[in-house]
Amino acid sequence: MSTGIGYGDGDGVGPGEVLLGDATPDEQLALTADWGSARRRRSVGPRLGPTGWLRWTWRQLTSMRTALALLLLLALAAIPGSVLPQRATDPLAVNAWIERNPGAAPVLDELGLFEVFSAPWFAAIYILLFLSLIGCVLPRVAAHWRSMRAPTPPAPRRLDRLADSRAWTTGDPDVLATAEAALRADRWRVTPGQGSLAAEKGFTRETGNLLFHIALLLILVGVALGALFGWKGTVIVRAGNGFANTLTQYDSFSPGRLTAPDRLPPFSFTMTDFTATFERDGSQRGAPRSFAATLAYRSEPESALEARVVSVNSPLRVDGAKVFLVGHGYAPHLRVTDSTGRVVLDDTVVFLPQDGNFASTGVVKSPDAEPQLGLQGLFTPTAALNEELGPHSTFPAPDDPAVFFSAWTGDLGLDDGTPSNVFTLDTDGLEQIGLSAVRPGETWELPGGAGTVEFVGFDRWASFTISRDPGKGLALAAAIAAIVGLSLSLFVRRRRIWVRVDREPGTDGTASLDQYRVQVAGLTRSDSADVCAEVDQLVAQLGGPTDGEDER
Amino acid sequence: MTLAAWSNVFVYASMAMYALAMVAFAASFASARVGPAAMPTSTRRGADAPAKVGVDADSDDLAVVAAPRDSAAGVDGAGQQEDPAGLAAAARTRAQARGASGSRPDLPRPESTEPLPPGRRAGNIGMSLTWVAFALLVVALLTRAAWAGRAPWGNMYEFSLASAAAITGVFLVVSLRRDVRWMGLLVVMASLITLGVAVLLLYNDSPQLVPALKSYWLVIHVLAAIVAGGAFTVGAAATVLYLAADRAERDSAGTGPKALSGWRGSIRSANSGAAAWVAARIPDAASLDAMAYRVNAFVFPLWTFAVIAGAIWAEDAWGRYWGWDPKETWAFITWLVYAGYLHARATAGWRGRKAAMIGLVGFACFLINFFGVNLFASGLHSYAGV
Lengths: 552, 386
What we know:
The complex is a heterodimer. Chain A is α+β, with helices and mostly antiparallel strands. Chain A is 29% helix and 32% strand.
């Protein structure tokens, strides 16, 4: 800082600022001062006791260099989470990956690479990063507080050495007071001096910087609140059927660590209708165009029934929770009788879509039938059959629906109480008795008089994610604060203007009584024209020469 | 002819203009020569032309603005008491305020009385063609929007068109404030490649949207991401040129990488030669670094906003504001690396080349996020249809 009037001295920004030498300090986003190197020098000693080591560790941790390394390390650590399938988003893909790679998978699993974002090493990095942030921000809050209260350094003797300086002579004895009033009216912080004044503006730069970093902490708090007290569940509801918000009705439910799953908000709904439309023409034929589920819901068991269409991007808000439509499929209505003619099933069965044309697979298990019956079904909304693909669907809408069945008899293994997947049929020990395609209204007589399967018709089902996140309001507010703070810290410039008024030296060397020499100069830490324009404006307000007409 | 077909015509016309602009910029770049002789410092220019006081009205470049004022002060000072030292001090102060080593500012603006410097005319033609290409592309997007009745970035094809427009748009906005013809070649090439990929690989003839995209957040979130993408690209172009200029400056100062023998030596000296060739045609390293920083500092809050707007949308569409979907993960990685870039510029020992390298890594992450995730990863963002 060869000018000697730079921002480096005495404005409380911190010792590191001096180390920045001739860099453009204005370009520094944030925790600009290199705290580490400034402090490290002080902490060098012959021997460090336990507190000395703690102090040393803390200084290392809160240095910019460490923060930078942790930022990049966190970025690096997140990469496997996008390359490998993750249990939190797609557990089935994880299992499939592990089956394909039996060699590497156990090692990767042990390292937590299928749960990167909840892995201890990932948490360690961001916790260290936030500790570093706290350790950096807190001293800077104090320094900023002092700096806003400290007077601006007085006007240097030679204002004309500054880049943006102007000088002229006036007969107005109140020019300094005029300048002060004008600057104050423009919300400059003015420090009056002897025959001079110093004005400063742009403290919001550092305020924004600190706000940004504190807001990041608050986002983390919001995320943590959600993880502790929120919950999320998914459920499949067939058209015409209902759902009540209790734990047992969910297909899957993930509570936060401190959630009370027995005290969920007591709303309920019935899906009265579901519609889906698809692109019929062009290269995007078959692409989904709209999904809509009509729900009749009660926010409390005693409250009135209300109707609401829930679609993608348009969830239902009820009782502090949100109900999102996340998927849909077909549920063929099947009527199954056994060899004795008894009806063992007369209901819609959820089939899970396997491809974009909604070829969907489903299973019927009838352990009470005589003999025990197992059915594997492939529902195709627009059925087609060829040698290459076998039975398949050519369009996702139900233009020509059919179910392709494979029937099995034998011990289904459901009597011993072991849990089994309702969407798959374990055919070990079963005997296949026949294959058939069935259209709506048709009945398939099973071979050997084992029973009948009637494809009565079909309905739709929709899957819903229902969640509550008590931390998201805080996270959103903090995110907005972060953007505001970040913008202030990057776009506001801290700048100073000095005005000096001296009596004009007369021709005989004595000071003249009614002529004053006015000098105005501005300084920013960067090559911004901002202060230049502000100096121009002030000069104009003081009746100084217009641009380029300096007089001496 | 449908509006969509008209839109395609405008896209092809725009691509033709980009190709011509690329030729013009290449010719300009090849013949331009910006040495100390051809490129007076602002101080020298001010001293040479003291009569030309007055601020170049359409420029806010402090160097240009300050030069006449300084020269006037210096000349007036000389009239009183011969003060060349004062002028030098003023120049020094300004150089320090600018954070530059202070030898070369941006290219000088042409003076009507002087003959055009080499490559100047081709550069002007390139700029004009770029404006035309940009206008045609904007018309193509507007026609497409009118045809589809929605924001023209509903699938990867339209998204790429809009990204190409954003790259050029950011460049043109910067060009209004300072002379960046030297960057034209890189920017036009980036836009043209993006358009080529869009037309050849990503073409999509559907006006409809998948349900997940039917939201007003499509306008907000995706537009922010597209503009950020344009600015990231311009910032990366400035960073690449900064690295070349820095290499040439270190070579000429004798602080560059040491000479090696064998084939590695050949590569190194070839690199030095290329860097020197390029550096002779672009501003000095310090100004390029400052410019890259300005663009990236502008884009960082915008990217932050794009990510947060995406989170708000995700909360509405999928029931959670952050779920580590591959697109989200890479947006986060990009954000972290650019945050690292901004911090590195303020960290002793990381300023300059190392920070620039981090900036380029950030741009690579951004490209992975924009294209790689849609092409190679399956996630919630893969609806857009490649």
